[in-house]
Write the structure tokens for this entry.
Amino acid sequence: MSAATTARGFGTGPLSRAAALLHTLLTVEALLLATAAPGLIGLLFLGPDPANLPLAAGCLLPFGPAASAALYALHHRSRDLTDLHPARVYLRGWRLNAFPALKLWAPLLAWLTVIAFTLTHFAAAGLPGWWAVLLAVIGMASLLWGAHALVLTSLFTFRARDTARLAAYFLLRRGRATLAAASLLALGGGLTALLTEALPALLAAPLLLSLLGSSGPVIVETQKDFTV
């Protein structure tokens, strides 16, 4: 058996693929935390006062481009342990997607901040109770739209308005992918409420990999019907 054949066998076996995935996840997680660190550190100094909601949204701004770069790196990851460059792929994804992701991420954060601020001051607003339910539903739909938009803008080169339209289209068109994204959001929210708000950030890479896997039908349909 030649050395080249041995190397290929070593790099493509199940244990090698598992090791490659673990290495990629750890590298992507470290880079995601590093690129989002300025905002995440700021969050640690903010109290739970609703008045801090706009500041919290500002602190979360770097997370959008970081998550987009992570999705790009995870999507383009190598399964071969002998050919791993996750840091290089992550940085390429950040360069390509930072600005396009921010064009969608910033308005989404602003919109969610308005909804959260209204709900936390709902008693003072004097609105009927059903408005709170409606705002909560709109907020959740916005988060799910954001999940689709993040995947699309990370993997495809569309104009921001086209990405926004496609993300809205897939909300109902691909109900299973939307429900899977809702499950991941619920998991992240549960981890934050029961343990610590830092845990979802520390598990961001596995959560994003799960989002990528559940978004397979969205990715395939976009490639087939909306790209040349």
Notes: Residues 1-7 have pLDDT under 50 and may be disordered. The first helix runs from residue 3 to 12.
